[in-house]
Amino acid sequence: MSTQQKLVDTARYLIQTKGYNGFSYADVAEQVQLRKASIHHYFPAKSDLARAVVEQSRGVIEEQARRLTSEDFDPQQQLLFYTGYWEKCIADATAPFCVAGMLAAEMPTLPDDLAQAVQEHFRTLSYWLETVLTKGSQLGVFRLRHSVRREAEAFMSTVYGAMLIARAYASPRTFPEIVELALKQLLGTSQGHHDDASRAS
């Protein structure tokens, strides 16, 4: 792994656990065993480092969205993979909170370039969800009560809200319990997350 990637990974974890205003280059230097001056060589300002973290995450979502447009996919399974990823990360504390979510909470204090990157991240995620929900609606899997954009943003809000409540209660199990309700609503049935996941396995 390159030094630059180590810096990005370290910054990601620090943002997830402390927030943008809760860490400094001294924290990064201690984790990566580099002098602060060396970090500035790669990322002149802390906002540059944080923006690299956000842009890397957005790049992953953009690639997933491109794949959805070029191949057949199971929309319900896509949502289960998405929520299941965060369920695991929260449970084992590898990524206890989405980095973009943490930064969004600090939006008023963020530098303009970083704030814009956070906004773009959420727009990209919303687009991905819209693609999944549109396909699910066309197949009769999801029952949308509102426009696909509103449904996508409502589901996204539920996921991030569930992360927040799980952290507030120090209860990882709270996350899937909340998300399960949103999945039930989309499916329009009494079946939940774990029933669907067991059938898919």
UniProtKB/TrEMBL annotation:
Keywords: DNA-binding, Transcription, Transcription regulation. Residues 24-43 bind DNA. Gene3D superfamilies: Tetracycline Repressor, domain 2 (1.10.357.10). Pfam families: TetR_C_13, TetR_N. InterPro entries: Homeodomain-like_sf (IPR009057), HTH_TetR (IPR001647), Tet_transcr_reg_TetR-rel_C_sf (IPR036271), TetR_C (IPR011075). Transmembrane segments: none annotated. Residues 1-61 form the HTH tetR-type domain. This is TetR family transcriptional regulator.
